[in-house]
Design goal:
6-stranded antiparallel sheet; 0% helix
Length: 306
């Protein structure tokens, strides 16, 4: 409740000033095992009670200078016990971690080998998609997108560059459950010119795991997909019926008229009713015997729906 006492009590309000050489603005605070790492626009500070695991109280509060690299306005990202942050001018990304030899927090410039992606630009938004690929997605000031794969314990640090038919404006990460399990899904606000009008879409990065190979890839800009999805040859005048949609071999696909199927179609993939089938034999031009690899939830389809 911000009360103070005389004499001072351990639960009194705490007010303190960083004893720095210059005027500094506090940008962010990150709790770490050794204390509260406080980022300013000039350097980093470690605030604690004067020792390891010592609580901060009105009597015991210390602030020790750490790395002399200021932080920008973007909030730091914590990856395990490493703190990533853009420097105060927004065009360099640093890694801050505790150095047991010097007993202070220090770090390195992890954008130096990809400086061509940063020179003349700043980062305006970023978010950490930890699972499954440990990728930090960042929006650059010119509307392009940068991605950083960061796995410090394996010394895996790499930047890449993405663009689109439009401008990336901002982003975030949302944890979702998909077919492959729980993932951190990157979402972006993207500005596009559609029919002469400037519009902004909220778009999600598609999954990068393709169980059925290229047939399941969805690598397009601003793609919109509806189900049931289509399959090969998909004529608009034929009706499809399926004997069984259960996973396994021996399902019969029958169309109302010949499609011209031949043995050359063996191995082709059919998408229907949220499921997937692989053609194993062709008894007739309108009949295919298939193995269901993903359950098909509907067994009858009007023209154009399979």
């Amino acid at each position: 409740n911000y009360d103070i006492s005389n004499p001072i009590q351990p639960d009194d309000a705490i007010e303190a000033t960083l004893a720095s050489l210059t005027l500094q603005s506090i940008k962010a605070m990150v709790p770490m095992p050794t204390g509260l790492v406080t980022f300013t626009d000039k350097q980093a500070w470690l605030v604690n009670g004067g020792g390891t695991n010592a609580p901060i109280t009105p009597i015991d509060a210390t602030a020790n200078p750490q790395a002399y690299n200021g932080a920008g306005d973007l909030p730091p990202i914590v990856g395990n016990f490493d703190v990533l942050y853009p420097q105060s001018k927004g065009s360099i990304v640093r890694d801050l971690s505790f150095n047991f030899y010097t007993n202070i927090y220090t770090g390195t410039d992890i954008s130096v080998l990809s400086s061509h992606l940063f020179y003349g630009f700043t980062l305006v938004s970023w978010a950490f998609a930890e699972e499954p690929f440990k990728v930090i997605w960042a929006v650059r000031s010119d509307g392009d997108c940068l991605s950083l794969t960061f796995l410090k314990e394996q010394d895996l640090i790499g930047w890449s560059h993405s663009d689109t038919n439009g401008l990336f404006k901002s982003n975030c990460v949302v944890t979702e459950t998909v077919a492959s399990g729980a993932v951190d899904a990157p979402y972006f606000v993207i500005e596009r010119i559609i029919n002469g009008n400037t519009v902004q879409y909220i778009e999600r990065m598609a999954e990068r795991t393709f169980t059925y190979g290229v047939a399941e890839a969805w690598s397009v800009d601003a793609g919109l997909q509806s189900l049931p999805v289509f399959g090969p040859n998909n004529p608009t005048s034929e009706t499809l019926t399926i004997s069984t949609g259960a996973v396994g071999a021996g399902s019969t696909f029958t169309w109302t008229a010949t499609l011209g199927l031949t043995s050359s179609n063996v191995g082709n993939i059919i998408w229907a009713g949220n499921g997937i089938a692989v053609i194993t034999s062709v008894p007739a031009g309108n009949i295919a015997i298939c193995t269901i690899t993903r359950e098909i939830t509907s067994l009858a389809f009007a023209p154009g729906d399979w």
